[in-house]
Amino acid sequence: MPLIHYLEDTYIGRRRRNRRSDPRFALANWNIHNRDAENLPRTNNSVEAWHRAFQQTLDCNHPSVYKLINHFRLEQYHIEIELESHLAGVNQPEASKNKYVQLNRRLQAIVSTYANDSMMDYLRGIVHNLEI
User: Fold this and answer.
1) For a 10 Å CB count at each end of the chain, is N or C smaller?
2) What are the pLDDT digits (tens) for 69-116?
3) Global pTM?
4) DSSP letters along the chain, please?
5) Which residues have CB under 8 Å from 71's CB, separation 6+?
């Protein structure tokens, strides 16, 4: 029961009298159906990877304001170069491991059948691709 209460409070909304209270996180914040349909990342791993790389190139835990500003300028320069190469048609690799590339393709195929399949078949397809 504690798990069910947690899920209700956090993602669904607890049932109160004739309606449900608002959940802690709105559906739009945690539902990734649209992200899969638009081929966007499902996690923030890329942001965490950027942060780690930025922190390592900064080479200290508590930089001065001037050092941090200069580092942000350097980072902006690198991002502008990446943006220009993207505009020139150079694409980023899909993922670093083939198993993730295959998983993304399978999930996109399942998401594309959302309107045509029954809800149970759709959910069953998603569940077959989950690892806990």
Assistant:
1) C
2) 999 999 999 999 989 988 888 877 666 678 888 888 888 888 888 888
3) 0.54
4) -HHHHHHIIIII--EETTEEPPPSS-HHHH--HHHHHTT--SSSHHHHHHHHHHHHHHTSSS--HHHHHHHHHHHHHHHHHHHHHHHTTPPPPS-SSHHHHHHHHHHHHHHTTTTTS-HHHHHHHHHTT---
5) 54, 57, 58, 63
